[in-house]
Specification:
The chain has helices spanning 20-31, 64-81, 84-93, 114-118; strands spanning 35-42, 45-54, 104-107. By secondary structure, it is of the alpha+beta class.
Length: 120
């Protein structure tokens, strides 16, 4: 008897995984700048924020290599949380834009069980 054919693994729970390259190209396409992205926890909720600082600014605290590593870590966290599709949809559809002193915030709807793993 032959072994059953492996079943293809479907997309991860949050849709196709995000990559640092996709995040960077989306930011540049939408707002023509490489804005800083951060995960922020407030009052038991997790938010993705698009900050007003960007890589192309002289005063930006990271160089291109450190910024790329930060985006890679962020993409891995978003994929692990199962929110890649939410983030992708929001970044591609929001009508807001980053403004000095005001971050754009996406409240992340975490799949059941994932919030308790991530939020302390």
């Amino acid at each position: 008897m032959s072994a059953p054919a492996p079943t293809p693994a479907g997309p991860p729970p949050g849709g196709e995984p995000l990559s640092a390259e996709e995040l960077l190209s989306t930011l540049r396409r939408r707002w023509r700048a490489s804005y800083d992205l951060q995960l922020v926890q407030r009052r038991g909720r997790l938010y993705l924020q698009v900050m007003w600082g960007y890589l192309e600014q002289q005063s930006f605290p990271l160089d291109a290599e450190a910024y790329g590593a930060k985006l890679a870590d962020l993409a891995a966290n978003l994929n692990g949380l199962g929110v890649a599709a939410q983030v992708r949809d929001w970044l591609n559809s929001t009508t807001d834009r980053p403004r000095l002193g005001k971050a754009m915030s996406l409240p992340l709807a975490l799949p059941p069980g994932r919030a308790s793993e991530f939020l302390l």
